[in-house]
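Incident review: delayed structure delivery

Summary: a single-chain prediction request sat in the queue longer than the usual turnaround. Root cause was a stuck worker, restarted by the on-call engineer. No data loss occurred. The affected request and its eventual output are reproduced below so the record is complete for anyone auditing the incident later.

Affected input:
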Amino acid sequence: MIQTSVLVLNKSFLPVQITTVRRAFCLLYVGIARAVNSQYETFDYDSWQQISAERENDTIGLVDRVIRVPRVILLIAYDRVPKRRVRFSRYNIFARDKNTCQYCGKKFLRHELNLDHVIPRGQGGTSSWENVVCSCHLCNRHKGGRTPEEAGMRLIAYPHKPAWTPPFNVSLRGAEIRKEWMPFLDFMVDISYWNTELLEE
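Output delivered after worker restart:
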């Protein structure tokens, strides 16, 4: 229990990190963080330990009592969001290309698009920011295993690595996503598919 995951928010209630229950209790105890409940109320260590833990599954036994495990904590003085590189993922490629086919210029829903290697892998093309674009199914089939020039097609814009910073920087790899986190992660639909980092080759 002491090594399970806790979501850490900055003082603007934005997710910035995942930590362990042990570390979360340390931060609470020294007054750096406050526990957050499902009603978005915050509690210091003393007030958190007074909340009834009788019907809670996530509890830790102390010498003289049982205390609830906080699943979300708020850093009371930290207002930044850690800056990280933009992942090479489906979600970010679609965001860069604004869900627009880079051959016909039409905007589509994400499920109506796929990724295309400008220089096909069969011709030595790599899976990288500079060689992968969004394309609709029709354009992708028409292009096939050819370059745009060979297929008589033209790119709207040459692919590049985006300069923006991702809005959500917490790595959830290996962490069990808990129901208490969902109000802070509700914009992360299809996270495993869209935010899985693609292999650059």
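Verification: The mean pLDDT is 84.
Action items: add queue-age alerting; document worker restart procedure.
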